[in-house]
Amino acid sequence: MPARNKTPQDSQDLAATTRTDPITGSIIQGLLENIAIEMGYKLMRMSYSSIIRESEDFGAAICDAQGRQLCECSKSTPLQSGPIPGYVRGIKRQLEARGQVIEPGDVILHNDPYNGASHSPDIGVCLPIFHADELIGFAVTTAHHLDIGSCQPGSVGVVKCVDSYAEGLQLRALKAYEAGVRNDTVWQMIADNVRVPDLVIGDLEAQVSACRTGVERMLEVVEEYGLKTVQDAVEDLFDYSERLMRSAIAEIPDGIYDAVGFVDGYSDSDDPALKNLKIKVTLTIKGDDLDVDLEGTAEQLSGHAINMPFHGTVDVAIWLTLRSVLLDSDRFGPIPQNDGLIRPITIRAPKGTIANPEFPAPTIARFAPGNVLADTVMHALAKAVPEQVSAGVANLKAITFSGIKDNQQWVHIEIFEGSYGGRYQKDGMASVDTLYANTRNNPIEDIESHVPLRVHRYEYRENFGGAGRWRGGANSIKEIEFLEDGVLSVEGDGHGRAPWGLLGGNPGEPSALILNPDHNGGIALPSMMTSRTMRASDRVLAIGGIGGGYGNPAERDRAAVLADIEDELIDRETAMRDYNIA
Asked: CA of 12: how far to CAs of 27, 243, 345, 579, in Å?
C-alpha cells in the first residue's frame, strides 16, 4: 500500500544544464530518429517474407560504441527494437572472449538468447560505425525469420524441444562479412540448415542493406555537426529521458504494489507442473527509483521452450510497460527512446525461473509468457495509477502453417490478434497485437497469393464479455483452410482464464482454437501445441480473447450500449445481461 504522497521536489528537477544548445540537440534528436525510421522502411520494402514485410516484426536502431541505444524505428515492434542494446553488448562479449576485434566493414550476425538476443529466430545484424578510425557506434536491425532450422518447421510453435541446441542455428557473433569481405561459408551454412533458404537469406540481406543505410546516415550527421557535438547531444538526450522517467515515478506514492499472473503452459499435459505457470511481480517505489522483483515466479521448465531470456524478453516486457503507462504519449508527446529511460529501473528475477532460466533451457516460445509478464506488471501498476492503465489484456496467438508443395518446403507464420481491456474514459482497443508485440495483421490477399491456404472467415467476435463502464476491446475470429496436406503448430496463451476486470469491470473472455469446427463441434486445441499433421480441407478456427472491463457496467453510457447493438457487436440479450438495458 502507498506510504505517502510525494511532490515534484522528490524527483530530480527537470531543468538541467545541457552540453549543447537545446535547438542543436533537438535537431540531432530528429536526425537520429529519422535514421532509424529510414532503416526500418528499407528493411520492410526489401524483405521477402510477410512476417517482416507485412507484419513488421522487425527492429532498427542506432547504438553508441558502448551499446547504449540512441534511437529506434517507430515502425518497429518493441520486442524487436528493445533488445538491440543487449544484442550489441552480447556481440562485444563474444568477440572479446574469442580474441576477435571489430573492424570497419564487418557484418556481424547474432541470435544467442543467453547473450542478449530475444530468442533464436530474431537474428540481429550489426554493422560497426567508424569515424576517423574510431568506433563510434553500431547500426543494428533485428527481424523474425520464418525458420531457423529447429526441430520442427517454422519459428513459432516450437513449444517443446530438448534444449537450446534443438531450437535451431546458434549464431554467436558470427562475421558474415569480415573487414568488408563476404564470408560465403557462413551464408552457405545458414542456407543449408533452414527450411526456406531463399526467404531467410533474402531477409538477412535486406537487414544488411538497412544497416548500411544507418551507417551512412550516421556518418553524415557526424560530418555535419562534428563528433563531439553529436556525442554531447546524445548524453543530453539520455539525461532528458531519465529525468522524464524519474519525474513520472516520483508522482507515484511510495509503496509496494504486487500482482500475480498465470501462463496457460501445456494444458494438454498430464503433468501439473507444466500448466498454470505463475508469474509474480512486486514493484517497489521509493522516491524516483522503481524496483521490479519477480521472486515467486515459476521454476524453469526443461524440455519445454516457454522459458524467457532475462535480457531480451523479460527486461523489454517490463521497460515497455512502465514507459507506456508512466510516460503516455498523449500527455508527454514524443519522447527520445534511449537508454536514459531505463536508468531509474532495477529488475531482478531469481535464477532458474522461467523469467531467468539457466542455459541450455529452451526459450524459443517466450513471447506468450512475456506478454503475460507485461500484463501482470500493468496489473500491479493498476493499484497505484488506475487511471493510467487498461484492464486485463487478451493475449496473442502465433501459428505456423507449413508443408511441401512442388517438392519445396513452404512456411507461413500467422499472428492472431489480442485485445486490450477497457481504459479510463475509453473502451479497450479492438483486435490488435498487444503490449510488447505490436505487429500488424497479414492481408488475406497476401496469404492466399503466397501459400496454399484459404481464409474463409475474418470478422469480429459477437456477444462477448468484458463488460464495464468502458468495455474490453472486441476481437476477431479467423478461419483458415489447408488447401494441401501440411503441418500446424501453435504458440499462444489465454485459453485457460479470462483477462482481469478493473474497478468493478467484468472479466473478459478466453480465446480458443478449434480444429474443423463444422464437424461435430470440432476439436479444441491447446494454446501451446507442437507440430500436428493436417490434411487438405482441414480448417482451423481461431477465436480471439476479449479484454477485461473497466468500471461498473451499470454506469456505461446507454448510447454506447445501443451503438454496440447497432454495430452488431452484441445483441439485445447480451445488453440486458451485462448492462441491464432492455
From this structure: 25, 6, 15, 46
Residue 484 domain flag: yes
Give me the DSSP letters along 125-160.
EEEEEEETTEEEEEEEEEEE-S--S-SSSSSSS--B
pTM of the predicted model as reported, rounded to 2 decimal places: 0.94
Residue 373 within a domain: no
User: C-alpha dihedral over 163, 167, 169, 173, to 10 degrees?
Assistant: -70
From the list 511, 473, 494, the residue with the least C-alpha distance to 261 is: 494
Looking at the DSSP bridge assignments, the partners of residue 119 are: none
Q: What is the DSSP letter of 273?
A: G
Task: Give the three cell numbers for residue 140.
Answer: 543494428
Q: Which residues contact 396 (CB under 8 A, 6 or more apart)?
A: 367, 368, 371, 415, 416, 417, 418, 433, 434, 437, 492, 493
Question: How far, CA to CA in Å, does 244 sit from each of 126, 248, 552?
Answer: 30, 6, 33
Residue 516 lies in a domain: yes
Q: Could you read off the pLDDT of 408-436 as tens digits, one per residue? A: 999 999 999 999 999 999 999 999 988 88
| Per-residue DSSP letter, 234 | H
Among 221, 238, 255, where does a domain finish? 238
Place of cell 517474407: 49
Bigger pLDDT: 514 vs 440: 514
Whether the ω angle into residue 121 lies within 30 degrees of 0, i.e. cis, is: no
**Domains: count for the chain:** 2
CA 501 – CA 325 distance, rounded (Å): 17
User: How would you class 504 by CB atoms within 10 Å of its CB: exposed for 0-12, middle for 13-18, buried for 19 or more?
Assistant: middle
Is 272 among the domain residues? no
Asked which of 176, 209, 238 is the last residue of a domain, the reply is: 238
Distances (CA, A) of 493 to 159, 331, 370, 474, 490: 12, 32, 10, 17, 10
pLDDT over threshold 90, residue 13: no
* Contact (CB, 8 A) for 247 and 11: yes
Residue ranges making up the domain that contains 58: 22-238
Q: Which residues pair with 415 in a beta bridge?
A: 398
